[in-house]
C-alpha cells in the first residue's frame, strides 16, 4: 500500500473480475497491481489463468509452493519478465527455495541480504546498539549484522559455530561408537553417529555424521518404516566410510518414539531407550 501513497494523485484502489488491485494512470498508459494472498493451500486458484508482467513475493518462505510456481508461469509472455522475492531467512532445505533453482542455474538470479547499515532511518547510535545485541550470539551476528547465509535458527544452532566446532581430524584412540536417534513426521527425524576417543587421561566426543529430515521444512511426510530403512542405510554408509570404527555399543532411540524403535527392530537393529 506504499504505492497507493506514492502515486496518490494518479492512483486508486479498484476491483474487477480478477480481484482487488491498485489502478495507476501513468503517462505511458494504465497499470494494474493486483495483490493476492498466497499462503493457503487453495490460494493458487486466485491467479490461475491470469497474465502478469512482473511479480513481487512478500514473505516468500511463507507462501504456498504451488502459488510461487504458478506465478512464474504467469509471467512467461511478459516483455519485461522480473520477479522480486522478499523473505525472512529460511532453512537451507526449505521447499520454496527449490523453485529458484532454474533461475540460479541459468545465471538470472541475484541474492541480496539486507543489513542494518542498509536502512537509512537508523542512526549511528541505533546501529551501535543493534550490533551489541547481535554479538551475544555468533549465529545472529553473522546472519543479521554481517549478512552471511548461515544455518537455521534455534537454541542449538545459535551456539554452533562452523569455524570452531568442526574438525577435520580426531584426537586420541577410538574406544566407543554409538548411535542416537529421534523420530517425527512433522518434526524432524534425526540419527547421529557419535565416537568417543581417549588420550592422555581425557575423553573426547565427536559427532561423525548425522541423518536429518524434516517433514515441515521439506513438505514431504514419510512413514516411520521408510525412515527406519533410510537410517539403516545411513548406519551402513557410516561403517563403509570409516571402516576402522569400533562396532557401536548402543543404538539409542528416544523412548517417546516407540514406532521408530519397532521399525528398526524389524530391520534387525536392536535399540536402547535414550
Automatic annotation (TrEMBL):
Originating organism: Enterococcus mundtii
Protein name: Terminase
The organism's taxonomic lineage, starting at the top: Bacteria, Bacillati, Bacillota, Bacilli, Lactobacillales
Chain segments annotated as coiled-coil in the UniProt record: none
Transmembrane regions: none
Amino acid at each position: 500500500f506504499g504505492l497507493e501513497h506514492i502515486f496518490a494523485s494518479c492512483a486508486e484502489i479498484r476491483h474487477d473480475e480478477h480481484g482487488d488491485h491498485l489502478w495507476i494512470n501513468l503517462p505511458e498508459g494504465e497499470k494494474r497491481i493486483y495483490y493476492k494472498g498466497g499462503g493457503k493451500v487453495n490460494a493458487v486458484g486466485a491467479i490461475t489463468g491470469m497474465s502478469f508482467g512482473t511479480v513481487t513475493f512478500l514473505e516468500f518462505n511463507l507462501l504456498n509452493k504451488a502459488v510461487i510456481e504458478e506465478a512464474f508461469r504467469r509471467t512467461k509472455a511478459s516483455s519485461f519478465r522480473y520477479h522480486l522475492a522478499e523473505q525472512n531467512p529460511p532453512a537451507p532445505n526449505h521447499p520454496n527455495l527449490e523453485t529458484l533453482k532454474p533461475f540460479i542455474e541459468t545465471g538470472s538470479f541475484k541474492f541480496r541480504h539486507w543489513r542494518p547499515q542498509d536502512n537509512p532511518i537508523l542512526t549511528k547510535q541505533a546501529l551501535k546498539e543493534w550490533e551489541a545485541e547481535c554479538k551475544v550470539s555468533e549465529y545472529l551476528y553473522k546472519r543479521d549484522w554481517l549478512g552471511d547465509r548461515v544455518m537455521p535458527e534455534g537454541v542449538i544452532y545459535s551456539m554452533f559455530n562452523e569455524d570452531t566446532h568442526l574438525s577435520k581430524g580426531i584426537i586420541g584412540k577410538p574406544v566407543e561408537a554409538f548411535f542416537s536417534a529421534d523420530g517425527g513426521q512433522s518434526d524432524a527425524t534425526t540419527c547421529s553417529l557419535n565416537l568417543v576417543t581417549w588420550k592422555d587421561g581425557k575423553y573426547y566426543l565427536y559427532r561423525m555424521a548425522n541423518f536429518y529430515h524434516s517433514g515441515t521444512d521439506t513438505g514431504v511426510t514419510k512413514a516411520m518404516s521408510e525412515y527406519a530403512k533410510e537410517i539403516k542405510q545411513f548406519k551402513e554408509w557410516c561403517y563403509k566410510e570409516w571402516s576402522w570404527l569400533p562396532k557401536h555399543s548402543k543404538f539409542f532411540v528416544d523412548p517417546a518414539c516407540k514406532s521408530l524403535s519397532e521399525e528398526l527392530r524389524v530391520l534387525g537393529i536392536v535399540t536402547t531407550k535414550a
